[in-house]
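JOB MANIFEST
job_type = single_chain_structure
chain_count = 1
residues = 365
[input]
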Amino acid sequence: MSALELDHFDEIDLDRLSPLNAEPPTKVRFSSAYRLRQKEFEPIKYVVPGYIAEGCTLLAGRPKLGKSWLVLEMGLAVAMGEACLGGVLCEQGDVLYLALEDNERRLQKRMDKVLGPLADWPENFHYATECPRANEGGLDAIRDWIKNVRHPRLVIVDVLAMFKPVRGDKENMYEADYHAIKGLQALASEHRVAIVVVHHTRKGGSDVDPFEKVSGTLGLSGAADTTIVLDRDSNGATIYGRGRDIEEIESAVEFNTGDCRWFILGQASEVRRTDERSAILEVLHDADEPMGPREISIATGADRNNIDQLLYKMAKAGEVLKAKRGRYIHPSRADLIEVQTSTPNKNDKKIRNGEGDAIEGWVDE
């Protein structure tokens, strides 16, 4: 049968092709690239623009880092049609928050902290502090909620450990992790809603790739449409995101302890570069003598390679000055440039003072 002839068949009976006929007939739908090109699909809908799209998102972070505050803020912003993360405006819709590690007293306290002295809390923000596991009725409960509200947009499962099925005797770790997410992913795709699953990162994860810190096997991130990691290091907190349908995310964030909200500071690379430049300038301003990259690295706590690169760029831009080879000063500390009185080497030059007399000093080429 040619490819063109196959294009006229929507379903093929695999049982007819099987010599054993041991299983009931199975229908598989085939199509062609030609047909696929003719189809038009709606664009991916963002529930939290730039961060949470329709589909299943696995959000992981260390315990007590603020994951629950983050998803609660997002959920309230969607329910109210307001902004979160310091200015990310969300389209209004119904929200279900499964706060499976909280009780009503704690949840009320958290919401009061985030919302402040508002007269009314959103009617379309629904919650539960208890829910069956996925394979014991949990998925059905979420499906029923989706079908019975007017405009379902966001479901939050906090946390995965309280919702995922208990591992079966015949399942390996990867299969168990994959199945823990796959049911939620299929439900999100079926109804075109966003489902955010809160999870933990493990200690001692990769210092290079934050996504390798996600606790468990790759089955979790493999089943999810998007994986987001909330992480903190010596440079501050960062949201990393990677998925099938979203642009890669690497945003520097800050937690405001006053109202327990997260704020986006900007692209992490730009924010961190600005922070490190400020730290370098502060150290050089307070220094009693010109400093080298190693000393600056120790004083700022920043990576030596980053310091080397930044010093080169800052010197080129005039943000720092070279006092001598490999030694830097703040632009306002020209008093630290020493005039050399010893015999100059081949790299030294004669510098004329204002009266035409020659003095020996070092000049950077």
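[summary]
The two ends are 75 Å apart (CA to CA).
Residues 1-21, 339-344, 346-365 have pLDDT under 50 and may be disordered.
exit_status = 0
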